[in-house]
Amino acid sequence: MRPLSGFRVLDLTRFLSGPYCTMVLAELGADVIKIEQPGTGDDSRRMAPKVNGESYPFAMPNRSKRSVALDLKSDRGRELFHELAAGADLVIENFRPGVTRRLGIDYDAIRAVREDILYCSISGFGQTGPYRDRPGFDIMAQGIGGFLRMTGQPDGKPTKVGIAINDIAAGATAIYSILAAELNRRQTGEGQYIDISLVDAGLAWTVWESGAYFGNGETPAQTGTRHRRSAPYQAYRTADGYVTIGANTDRLWQRLINDVLKRPDWADDPRFIDLPARMNHLDELEEEIEAITTTLPTSAWVDRMDTAGVPGGPVLTYDETLDDPHVQARGMIVDLEHPIIGPMKTIAPPTRFSDLEFSVRAPAPWLGQHTASVLSELGIGGDEIDRLFTDGILYDAHPDLQKGRTA
């Protein structure tokens, strides 16, 4: 039994922030029905690489869901959405503010058919404020949130974080906000409207940076791999690559200089004698450490640090990460069988519960794969469903693959 079994979600989201959120809800047990535009669907379905015409990137955050392709601009399509919403617990969307109102599927419209509905909107800048009407993707949020100016090498160009961090931050924020709203609803019977902004979600993660700014006006700058408050805490060159070292306490510093780097004299070096001194001499510290670490390969330094109890590790490329024996042993790569792509791999949910089930349930659906079956659950007759397919209000990209249906 999954913890969200029986919780039904109507998912109107596209790209990454919303789909990431609903993927997690689905694998916690929610019945996530992805509502997509006939013919095109989620914009991320266009992303390469494609296998047999299906987008592999789309398949990552959209697994474990059902797809219904429904024209919300048509009167009957909107009526059917309202019928679905009457039996749903959550509606989630990431259109620009105002779009759902024009479609007649905004919070007030859905609350009229289910008073205690949870309704979550994710947008670039939120539903209020002077920028509310701006379109906003992850890169804009990284820019306005200061991330592009605090990432990368000192004096370098503005640098994007390697992943879509604001999208994932917004998705993660939506997850815990929805779960909090559901707990509240179970106690009070009241629904909730939830407003999530990519900018707000990312800004909320600037914990150390905000502390330094509010504490003494420090504006976070680009520091490469260096930590803003501790040293040594960064990646250092080795004979064949890079190694991370996290000797950011006095106890770990002593282990590093005595047992790993074999430089006990640094304990009395005024440049490195304590953390404030090390932070004031970061360039010299890096130069001195790399003069030593470049004499041996990464693996040798990792072995030394493991023996000494100093946190450290290799700096891997993504393919090396996925091949790493620890990642493999943790079961972080899952094999699936997609009805069109065929055998494929995905990344597993990261949490290990003692007794709760949290795992990939199914591959991502093709566009409109569950349109007929979901509407049949509503009690819509087969003749009407066939007519709605003919009229283009409903859509199934591969009716030939449906059992019991013909193209």
From TrEMBL:
GO terms for molecular function: transferase activity. SUPFAM superfamilies: CoA-transferase family III (CaiB/BaiF). The keyword Nuclease does not apply. Keywords: Transferase. The keyword Transferase applies. Gene3D superfamilies: Crotonobetainyl-coa:carnitine coa-transferase, domain 1, formyl-coa transferase, domain 3. Its EC number is 2.8.3.-. This is CoA transferase. It comes from Mycolicibacterium arseniciresistens.
